[in-house]
Structure formats: structure tokens, C-alpha cells
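Hello support,

Our group uses your service weekly, and this is the first time we've seen a run hang past the timeout. The protein is MFS transporter. I'm not sure whether the cause is the sequence or the server load. Input pasted verbatim:
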Amino acid sequence: MTRWPPVAAMLAGGILGAAQIGKVPAAMTTIGAEFSLGLTGAALLVSLFALMAALGGLGIGLAVARIGPRRALLSGLGLGTLAAAAAALAPNTPLLLLARVAEGAGFLLLVVAGPGLIAACVAPRDRGFAMGLWGTYMPAGIALGLLSAPLVEAQGWRLAWLGLALALGGAALLCIWLVPRAAATEAPAAAPILAQLRALAAARRPLRIATAFATYNVMYFGIAAFLPARLESLGAGTGGAGAAAALAALANAGGNLASGLLMRRGVAADRLVVVGALGMAVTAAGVYLVPQPAAVVALAVLACGIGGVLPAACFALLPRAVPDPALVAPAVGLVIQGNNLAQLLAPPLIGALASSSWALASLPLLVAGLLATLAGRALAR
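Update from on-call engineer: The timeout came from a worker crash unrelated to the input. Re-ran successfully.
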């Protein structure tokens, strides 16, 4: 029997966790000015959120099955709430950066534990739909964070960030109340960790999925993190730029849902990876090549919509990519680690290139699109 209330509570937690990523681009210019960071330095606030996952995503994936997914989920929500509040109140740059690292650690626990708990809460016939909903947590959350831009403009970034921290705390309380302990009956994996790692490497396909997902995120965060600054450089106001970036993020969520529908109709997931990577690369590069604000917004929305078919396809491929169900959680951790490694490294690089010329910022997006396409073709083979 499907229990939708706990699924909704966990989805709310995932969305509000991801909102802690989207809140940074909405306030990047303001924070950069207050702390004298510049565009490149402010971009570190996006990257440091991913630091813990980039260093330990696979390890967390191995650990979650042992400590229990429900405990990991609630710990992630609690840590994320406290760290988000600390970031909103940070008096100086070091404490702000440290809080962002802690936020990233909490988010990692949340997103690794979420899929297994959701699968345990739904009937088999509803599992695909439920996982498709979960796949929207990142774009929907980033859109929510970006929508804080008008509040940043009117009341300042600290109040906006504190409000998002309180909302995340509310989601944590909902999960404590609604997520049943029975959903966390997953037994620890019997195989030793080293044996699991060897099996994961031997399977190869998880590594290819992780590559495709990581390079997709170079393109996605290349838009999500810098679209407001790009539009402001073309004369747009802070509120309007943040709203445009939120629209692009919502288009990405729509792409995730469309991907699920296409796969239900029989379209191969690996084909969606290739199409999404190619289409996103071309349109994302155009965001930093065309000089008209309206065209920039249109290209960003199109790029995020087309690229949105890729994450859902990757998550659909994962269960079939491992030889043992016990390897699913480590495989999810591997994919998240690759995702966050891209999120850690790409924004400072793109920010540095954009500081010289916005046109140069298109180069990493084109290279990432090529690598994602090659990974998709390898999956098809």
C-alpha cells in the first residue's frame, strides 16, 4: 500500500534542502559586495555546499545502509537546518564558508537516504512515479531558492536565508512525524566494503552514469549559478534576474517529469541521456554568447528543459546498472559524489572565465556536453 504523506514530507525536505543551493545565486552579488569577495569568490558559496559530497559521497552511500536510512535522513535535515541558520547569521567570510560546508554535509545525508525510504513507502506500481517526483527535488529547490531574490532585494540576504532555514526545519519536523520507522528496515549489506567497491567498479555502467550526471551538472550549475549575474550584466534588476533563473530551474523540473513519461512510453533511458546532453550543451553555451536579455532567458529555459531529461534517465538506469541490489545505495553515493565534484569545481572556473569575458564561460559547458554525450553513447553500447 502506498503512503503518500511520508513521500510528500521527504520530497519537501529534498526541495527545501536544494533551496539552500538556489539561495546563493539570488544573493551572490549582494554577498560578494558585503564581504568583498567578487564574483569568483562568491561562487565558492555554491561550490562549498558540495564539498562534503565531492569528498565523501560514495562513503556516505556505503554508510547510510549501515546506520539506517531514516536516521540518516533526519540527521541530514537537522544538520542542514542548523547550518543554514548559522550561514544567515555569519559575521565574517570564514564562518560563512564553514556553514556552507556543513549545509553540504546535511544535504548529502538527505539525498542519499531519500530514494530508498521513498521506495519503501510506495507500492511497486507507484514506485516509478514516486521516484520521478523525487527527481525534481533539485530543480524545484533551486527555483525556490532563486525566488528569494525579491526578498533579498527588499530586506537583505540574511532575512531571506533565515526564512529558508526555518522552512527546512519545518520539513524536518514533518519527516519526524510522518516517515515511519517501518520504512527503515533495510538490512546492512553483508558484503565487505572493499568487495562492494570492487563489484561497483567491475560493473562499469555506474561509472558511466556518474560521468554523465557529473558533466550534466557542470552545464546545469553553469546556468543556475550565473544566470542572475549574467542578466544583471545586461541591465536586468536583481529581482527580475532571480525570477528568470527560477523559471529556468522550473523548466528543468519539467524536463525531469517529461523524461519519466517518455520512459513509460518506451523511450530508452540511454537515448535520453544522449539527446539531453547534446541539446543542453548547444543551448547552454548560447546563454553566454548572445547579448540580448530576452534571448538569454529563452536559451536558459530551453537548455534546462532539454537537459532535465538526463537526471531522471540516469536514476532510472542505476538499479539495472548494478549486479546486486545491495550496491544500489553505493551507486547512488557514487553518482552524487560525481555530481558534487562537478558542482565544487565548475562554478569557480566558470566564474573566473566570466570575470574576463562572458563568452569564455561557454567553453566549459560545451566540453561538459561532449563528455556527457560520450558517456551516454557508452551506456547505449
